Amino acid sequence: MLDLSNHHQSIQIVIDKHSQKVKNEYRMRLEASIDVSRFLLQYGLPFRGHDESESSINQGFFLGLLRWHGDKHPDAGKVILENAPQNDTLTCPMIQKDIANACAKETLKAIIGDLNGDYFGILVDESKDISHKEQMALVLRFVNKNGEVVERFIDLVHVSDTSACSLKKAIYSLLSVHSLSPSKIRGQGYDGASNMKGEINGLKTLIMKDSPSAYYIHCFAHQLQLTLVAIAKKHLDVEDFFDHVSNMLNVVGGFFKRRDLLRDHQAKKLEQLFESGEVKKGQGLHQERGLQRPGDTRWGSHFKTLDSFIVIFSSIVHVLEVIELEGSTSSDRNQAEYLLTKRKSSGVSYEHHLCVEVFFVVIDVQLQELNDRFDVVSGDLLLGMGSLKSGQFFL
């Protein structure tokens, strides 16, 4: 009878080595996919491309970056993508989602750990996605272990409707998932919608019934934005001015050829200023300006529009003069002529008109609007914060 024990032992050694090699290759493929996913998640980049076929020259960020990773690390390149077993490439959409979900769980675990069971405030907003489904976003505001005030995004969830009861249920459900108690809420921050700040059945009232210390503050920045934008619609001269700016944006910035003409004139004028010594060259100076359309509810965008308008005013006038003479249609030529020659006849000086009839009136309307939108508590809090910032309060 033959002794096969040594032969069997040799076979087992070969099997063990092969199994270890397979495990190492799998680990390298998984680590490569995880590294690429973490990079894309860190910078908020999309994973998938429009065409991910092998013949595509743009397969999307995930596959493209994974291929680049393999080129830079030959050991990984030997076991990923087309060099991997076809049933174990670890690149399919389901795998990508699993990795992203795992990263999200680890991130949330770190956030909750940083909170360390302490008190927190909640910031909530809702909006419709592209498919018109209502979505609710939840952000926690708290003091971390380093004593820093931080805001951390927790989740974005679908809600059946935006009633106060539905939003409260969704908030409590999210807090429960992360073992957070509503009794720890010490602040609420929402917009000014009635379902959020209503005194009887609003979300803030429902939560304060469970946690009386969860004081509600309407976002100050949001209130200020609404106040300033409301002024632009209430004062006739201001409204007329922004209508004039909007018409100018449509005429000058509505076509590629006109935008190119605007850029060319800016470049030529800047070169002339360099030659005359009126401006100096330097890194970060004299960036190209464009025409940005202001948003309806963001006063900052109005400021950016006007700031650019002032800087490139002469270039805008030049483009309008060209359109007035060479416009392709009579409507374009008439619009350019109207924008260039519109003036209001007045029996007072410009200084009196701008100072008395516009500036003082707008300030009065702004004060009235601020008093209407900010209650006494919010006003006192703002004054206190302003005093602390200016160094008038000492501890």
UniProtKB/TrEMBL annotation:
Name recorded for this polypeptide: DUF4371 domain-containing protein
Pfam families with a match to the protein in the record: DUF4371 (PF14291)
Residues in DUF4371 domain copies: 3-202
InterPro entries per UniProt: AtLOH3-like, DUF4371, RNaseH-like_sf
Organism superkingdom: Eukaryota
